[in-house]
Structure formats: C-alpha cells, structure tokens
Write a structure and sequence with these properties.
Helix content is 86%, strand content 0%. By secondary structure, it is mostly helical. It has a domain of 29 residues. Helix 1 runs antiparallel to helix 2.
Length: 93
C-alpha cells in the first residue's frame, strides 16, 4: 500500500468516525428534546435527560478522539516502516 492510499484510508476512517459521532450526538439531542417536550423543561426528568445526553455525547467524543489517534499512530508506524524498508540507501564513502 502506498503512502497516498494509506492517507486516503486514514481520512476515510476518520471521516466515518466523525460522521458516526455526529449521528450519535444528533440522536441524543433529538431524544432529549422529545423527553423534554413530554415531561417539561425544568423537572427532574428533564435534568436527568440532560445529564444522559451529556454523557452520551462525551463518550462519543472520546471514542472519536481514540479512533483519530489510533489512525494517526498506525499511519506513522506504516510510514516509518515504509521508509526503512523501501527508502533509498545512502552510499558509504
């Protein structure tokens, strides 16, 4: 796999992870809005819904960061290994 293909795959994984995270966040917001429209904004149920939504969003955000860092690390390892294996050898004088 070339570095160009590796970068494309890296971007696909990161973009997919971000899209999934955005979907989770929007779904949590929608569910929270539905609960609040039924139970009311200021009540105990509304506050519990807010806390649950915040928790879900934070977990999703953390997961997205982990995927991004994992992709970056794997990409750097691949690039380093490629340079060592396929890089030009310096001539000794």
């Amino acid at each position: 796999m070339s570095e160009k293909n590796s970068t494309k795959e890296e971007n696909i994984v990161k973009k997919t992870s971000k899209t999934a995270s955005d979907l989770v966040n929007k779904s949590a917001d929608t569910a929270n809005d539905i609960v609040k429209s039924i139970s009311g904004e200021g009540g105990l149920v509304g506050k519990a819904a807010d806390a649950s939504t915040d928790f879900v969003k934070n977990v999703s955000k953390t997961g997205n960061k982990v995927v991004g860092k994992s992709v970056d690390t794997a990409s750097n390892v691949f690039k380093g290994a490629s340079k060592k294996v396929f890089g030009k050898k310096k001539e000794k004088r």
